[in-house]
Amino acid sequence: MPKQVFKLRDVPDDEAADVRALLSENDIEFYETTAGNWGISAPGIWLKDESRFAEARALIEAYQVERQQRMREEYEQLKRQGRQRSVAQMIMENPLRAILYLIGIVVILYISIKPFLHFGQ
Questions:
Q1: What is the pTM of this model?
Q2: How far is CA 55 from CA 23, 47, 61, 63, 85, in A?
Q3: Cβ neighbours around 59 below 10 Å, total
Q4: Handedness of CA 7, 13, 14, 18 (dihedral sign)
């Protein structure tokens, strides 16, 4: 019976490609499911042979530990070089977008709180 070995929701394309390559290199047969037309299904990588689940999970977990270390080192290097973008830099790059987002947040908060402001009257 098929068993899901890796969930693909909100996974970067490069990570999904690496997991596919990892499984293929180790001759582990798998297939993928998508989120469907409306994005409500469970996208993932499924094993055809459930008996290789432990092996596949061990490979994926080792890969994820290595990826986490690599991404953290890359982030720290960008930070040391001053190339890691901060929130202030993103606001300075596009102040109009920041203002529009702020207005949107205020409108949503007002709509959410307004019924309670006049509740006791």
A1: 0.72
A2: 10, 11, 10, 12, 39
A3: 18
A4: positive
CB 36 within 8 A of CB 54: no
Domain of residue 32, residue span: 3-84
Q: Provide the pLDDT confidence category of residue 79 given band limits of 50, 70 and 90.
A: confident
Q: Which two tokens stand for residue 114?
A: 């307004």
For residue 7, what is the domain's CATH number? 3.30.70.1530
Asked if 30 contacts 47 with a C-beta cutoff of 8 angstroms, the reply is yes
CA-CA distance, 74 to 68, in Å (whole number)? 10
What contacts 26, CB < 8 A, 6 or more positions away? 55, 56, 59
The CA-based angle 92-93-99, given to 5 degrees, is: 65
55 CB neighbour count, 10 Å cutoff: 15
Is 45:63 a contact under the CB 8 Å cutoff? no
Same domain, yes or no: 71 and 90: no
- Over 70: is that where the pLDDT of 113 sits? yes
